[in-house]
TrEMBL record:
Its EC number is 2.4.2.3. Residues 29-268 form the Nucleoside phosphorylase domain. It catalyses: uridine + phosphate = alpha-D-ribose 1-phosphate + uracil. Gene3D superfamilies: Nucleoside phosphorylase domain. One of its GO terms (cellular component) is cytosol. PANTHER family: FI09636P-RELATED (PTHR43691:SF11), URIDINE PHOSPHORYLASE (PTHR43691). It is an enzyme of class 2 (transferase). Pfam families: PNP_UDP_1 (PF01048). This is Uridine phosphorylase. One of its GO terms (molecular function) is purine-nucleoside phosphorylase activity. GO terms for biological process: purine nucleoside catabolic process.
Amino acid sequence: MTLKPSEFILNEDGSIYHLNLLPNQLATTVITVGDPDRVNNITKHFDTIEHIVHKREFHTQTGMYKGKRISVISTGIGTDNIDIVFNELDALVNIDFKTRKVKKNLTSLDIIRIGTSGSIQADIPIDAFLVSETAVGFDSLLHFYKSEEIQDIKFSKLLLEHLILPRENGLPYVVNADVRLLSYFEKDYFKGITVTNCGFYGPQGRVLRLPLSNPNLNDRMAHFNYKDRRITNLEMETAGIYGLSKLLGHRALSLNAIVANRATGEFSKDPTATVERLIVDALDRIASIEAVI
Ligand SMILES: O=P(O)(O)O[C@H]1O[C@H](CO)[C@@H](O)[C@H]1O
Ligand SMILES: O=c1cc[nH]c(=O)[nH]1
């Protein structure tokens, strides 16, 4: 099937619509970050940089780190942006830009998020590193795709019952990390279930001036137990990343620098330094990931 100009959109220079990238500018190992400025904070450690491309909040750099070609791309905040970035990353490797057809032989990307997050467990302290073994999405993105077979529906239903959430909040979706990528990060990192939400304030239980419809939500989440595993942290992209990666045949993992502890009310004194430590640690682990043949 040839994809129509309204569905698969290319810019005048042949690059993909939002990311502004050409297929040869993307590596098969991709690091995603929320903050466009964090891209430089990662690539300043690279040995060489081949490409620097900007459009809107999407800032991409591709280069070499210890013998591995890596692209670093900022997604901005939220799973609405994840929908754009992951569909376009996939198009860059799996759609032929000349024929506008899906390729016969598909490529799987290794995609690692390096982001910040808030812990909801008192014993997961600020400035710790946490790898998301499972992600729970309250943002509803995955429900727009045919996705039942990649979701843990039993988990979703038990969580919904435990939280006593009203119907208007919708059904949370649950997707696991790629186990192979996870194996490179299990040692030394906290491991947990990450909740992805569609906002930073009300949806994560923060109150500045507006009262919440469900003020006990974070506390109830913190006490949910599934197969002896607990919900550990809140952020805004991981569930979308896991869901779309699984559907598109890519491998994904989310790494979190814990900058807030919602149970104790603390915030990191130096979040930039914590993120920098995570970047330095993660880059060496990413460089050691063996290619899947
Ligand atoms: O630090 P990043 O990667 O942006 O991630 C977290 O921080 C942002 C909110 O401050 C959200 O994007 C959340 O997921
Ligand atoms: O509490 C936090 C901290 C960082 N990012 C989030 O989304 N929440």
